[in-house]
């Protein structure tokens, strides 16, 4: 005589069916569109021994929650800081943002000359127009993103919008 209690057996079958379906849905799920989109990263060529270079880009948050740019690193500089330029009386001053930058849901944050920017501190080599420099940006939710900055000629403004 079969002594296996039927309710338990069907519960076990139900659980294994659910986990199989769950596993299948994970396998079948298309790669999620990244919530953060990084556009037009660029920097400027530097003279030899330049102590700093700015890094500019646009960050689009397509997600439903705010994200934060927390920090950045680069093999092409001793370190990378997140900066803000702002008027202090009639002086333009630069300030390091230790708490990083928030990017609201469904919003775009532009890092540009005269505003928020990344600062490559002590570049390890001159930045040469036409080449690229690399930085890894760390976001609270978006994780690590490697970004390649187009080096534009000395004195350049932002590249034209695409
Ligand atoms: Cu700066």
From TrEMBL:
Q: Which SUPFAM superfamilies match?
A: DR1885-like metal-binding protein
Give the record's keywords alphabetically. Answer: Signal
Membrane-crossing residues?
none
Superkingdom in the source lineage:
Bacteria
Is Magnesium among this UniProt entry's keywords?
A: no
Signal peptide annotation: 1-28
User: This chain belongs to which protein, by name?
Assistant: Copper chaperone PCu(A)C
Q: What is the lineage of its organism?
A: Bacteria, Pseudomonadati, Pseudomonadota, Gammaproteobacteria, Lysobacterales
């Amino acid at each position: 005589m079969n002594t296996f209690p039927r309710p338990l057996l069907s519960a076990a079958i139900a659980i294994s069916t659910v986990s199989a379906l769950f596993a299948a849905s994970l396998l079948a799920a298309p790669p999620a569109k990244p919530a953060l989109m990084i556009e037009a990263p660029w920097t400027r060529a530097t003279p030899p021994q330049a102590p700093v270079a700015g890094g500019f880009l646009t960050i689009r948050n397509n997600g439903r929650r705010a994200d934060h740019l927390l920090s950045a690193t680069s093999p092409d500089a001793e370190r990378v800081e997140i900066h803000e330029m702002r008027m202090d009386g009639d002086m333009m001053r630069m300030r390091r943002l230790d708490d990083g930058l928030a990017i609201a849901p469904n919003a775009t944050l532009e890092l540009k000359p005269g505003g928020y920017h990344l600062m490559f501190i002590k570049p390890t080599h001159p930045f040469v127009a036409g080449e690229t420099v690399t930085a890894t940006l760390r976001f609270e939710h978006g994780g690590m993103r490697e970004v390649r900055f187009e080096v534009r000629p000395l004195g350049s403004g932002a590249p034209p919008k695409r």
